[in-house]
Amino acid sequence: PLVLGIESSCDETGVGIVRGRKLLTNTVSSSMDEHVRFGGVVPEVASRAHVQAIGPAIASACETAEVELSDIDAVAVTAGPGLSGALMVGVGAAKGLAAALNKPLYGVNHLAAHVAVDLVAEDIDGLTTPTIALLVSGGHTEILRIGDVVDDIELLGATIDDAAGEAFDKTARLLGLNYPGGPNISKAALGLLDGTGAPGDRNAVKFPRGLAKKQDLRDPERRYNFSFSGLKTAALREVTKAETLGADLRVADIAAGFEDAVVDVLVTKTLLAAADTGINHVVLGGGVAANTHLREVLAERCAEAGVTLRVPPLKLCTDNGAMVAALGAELVSRGIGPSDLSFAAVSSLDVDHVLV
Ligand code: ATP
Ligand code: MG
Ligand code: FE
């Protein structure tokens, strides 16, 4: 089936078109630049940007894919989880399109779509299941067990406070670095922002490993969960200390120590989930997948544990429409759905609701 997928859960307006498992186009426009001066995604600003971007994005996707809207067999859209107002723009557009074309509409789960994207990735043949998925972005941090991307997804753990990307963004702000924090913290850790070119010392400042003490790992409520809010406090302590002493803030050391702490806990818990479930495959998704240190440490520790690792191309890791179209096409070909045109966007949609 020819499926058009729309993604608008956060600050990316994504439109993807797939024919079965072939990706025809993946158009993404981001309002990230508009959020820089606020230090994080402002929901109202993101919603407005979606309203402006969605029409042109659909038109340009059709043009690149060389398809007419009337050729489309089904429309898929992210129904949740995500920012309410942002989701509503995509859902509204998708409903209008489906109604006008008189074609079925599939309201799909954003997290499942992050995993389903490998169905259409060009550098790989399909999706390996069962797998453990680590999804890390500005809005979420989850460990999932995936038996099947449509009807067997289990949430093993998630953050109890900040998302991993959010922790990067907030800590960056404390250190006087711009949004998005992720890439800037990485650069700072490598000594690329202070002009010295000297990498920071990952062990100079001690950062807490949230929920990763021995007793946390014994507690089923904490074993796969994350807490990153303590990292901000630790970074703030360093900032205050430097101010009080009138000393230079060792940004490279703090950035390196912070990054290592986030990565360490993410990787440790992912491999714990793999070992506990007896699953020897891990897939990474979300914008924090851009982090080089995360990819290196994860690859290293997966290899040590005899676990194979899949990291999709970065364009497919960050929010995009192709992943939504991929999941939509899978539902169409399995004869599941469509959604009723009256469904609403659900900002806290559970991961076991793959279709609303
Ligand atoms: P959602 O949570 O709905 O998936 P999002 O827009 O918050 O959406 P993405 O666009 O996938 O998430 O990713 C953005 C996040 O990824 C930001 O928090 C940013 O700081 C983080 N990020 C980007 N590059 C890096 C990096 N190199 N290292 C660490 N974090 C990064
Ligand atoms: Mg984003
Ligand atoms: Fe996402």
Question: Care to describe what's here?
Answer:
The chain is built from twelve helices and ten strands. By secondary structure, it is of the alpha/beta class. The protein has a five-stranded mixed β-sheet with strand order 3-2-1-4-5, with helices on both faces. Helix 3 links the parallel strand 4 and strand 5. The protein starts with a strand and ends in a 22-residue tail after the last helix. 51% of the residues are buried. The mean pLDDT is 96. Bound molecules: adenosine-5'-triphosphate, magnesium ion and fe (iii) ion. The site of adenosine-5'-triphosphate (ATP) has 25 residues, from helix 5 and helix 6.
Task: Describe the structure in brief.
The chain has twelve helices and ten strands.
3D shape: globular
Q: Which regions are unreliable across 5 or more consecutive residues at pLDDT < 50? A: none
The strand order across the widest sheet is 3-2-1-4-5
Strand fraction band?
Answer: 15-25%
Note the gap between the termini: 20 Å
The number of helical segments is 12
Bound molecules: adenosine-5'-triphosphate, magnesium ion, fe (iii) ion
**Element pattern in H and E:** EEEHHEHEHEEEHHHHHEHEHH
Overall residue-averaged pLDDT value: 96
How much helicity do the residues have? 40-55%
Going by helix content, strand content and strand pairing, the class is alpha/beta
Radius of gyration of CA atoms, rounded to a whole number: 21 Å
Largest sheet: 5 strands, mixed
β-strand number: 10
Family: Belongs to the KAE1 / TsaD family.
EC number: 2.3.1.234
GO molecular function, one term: tRNA N(6)-L-threonylcarbamoyladenine synthase activity
Catalytic activity: L-threonylcarbamoyladenylate + adenosine(37) in tRNA = N(6)-L-threonylcarbamoyladenosine(37) in tRNA + AMP + H(+)
